[in-house]
Write a structure and sequence with these properties.
Blueprint: H1 3-16, H2 21-26, E1 34-35, E2 41-45, H3 50-55, H4 62-73, E3 81-85, H5 99-116, E4 120-124, H6 126-132, H7 138-141, E5 146-152, E6 155-164, H8 167-170, H9 174-184, H10 187-191
Parallel strand pairs: 2-3, 2-4, 4-6
Antiparallel strand pairs: 1-3, 5-6
The chain binds uracil.
């Protein structure tokens, strides 16, 4: 099966199993993920906001525009990457995703990653980062790639995680903006395995 069909299957599973029915009920639609199913790099945000809920695609609002700018700064665009969120329905009033919601969607996120097999997983913000690196502070580890081992359907996988601040944090904060751009600069080296990960 192609990666694109595997992803379609995972999306159908979420719908068929009615994951987080309360969230689903009040959202416009499922925001599963978009981009290149054969990408070397996958970006993971928190949960869809208003624009994403309406359009059915992740990061299409102001944060998405800054993400596009960061991608361009390293010579990439959306067609090179895959992008998704931990929680795949918009939480009411943009509240933070609840632990139980993150837990419910995690197996599907892992399945997406196991299908795409990216060289690098970029986590955007603390919610996303802590799904892979629990207990670590984004302020301490942003920009520092980590290697983790996870078991997906009984298979042990090694993933490289690059934790970044959430682009929304940089929208009105100039120093956060330059920190993010600096951290982002290591993406090409990570993709080409040209980066020595110390941990
Ligand atoms: N913020 C996120 O975390 N995800 C989106 O899709 C949009 C904004």
């Amino acid at each position: 099966m192609s990666t694109a069909s595997t992803l379609d299957q995972i999306k159908a599973d979420i719908l068929n199993k009615n994951i987080c029915p309360e969230l689903a009920k009040q959202a416009t639609q499922l925001v599963f993920g978009s981009g290149n199913p054969n990408a070397d790099v996958v970006f993971i945000g928190e949960a869809p906001g208003k624009n994403e809920d309406l359009k059915g695609e992740p990061f299409v609002g102001a944060s998405g525009r800054f993400l596009d700018e960061m991608l361009a700064s390293v010579g990439l665009d959306r067609s090179d990457i895959y992008i998704t969120n931990i929680v795949k329905y918009r939480p009411p009033n943009n509240r933070d995703p609840l632990p139980v919601e993150k837990q419910a969607f995690l197996p599907y996120l892992y399945a997406q990653l196991a299908a795409i097999k990216p060289k690098v997983i970029v986590t955007l913000g603390r919610h996303s980062t802590n799904c892979f690196l629990p207990g670590l502070q984004i302020s301490q580890i942003h920009g520092q790639p980590k290697r983790i081992r996870v078991k997906v359907h009984g298979t042990e996988l090694t993933w490289v995680i690059l934790p970044l601040y959430h682009p929304a944090a940089a929208l009105y904060n100039g120093s956060m903006r330059s920190t993010l751009l600096d951290d982002f600069a290591s993406v090409p080296a990570l993709i080409s395995n040209d980066y020595k990960i110390t941990l």
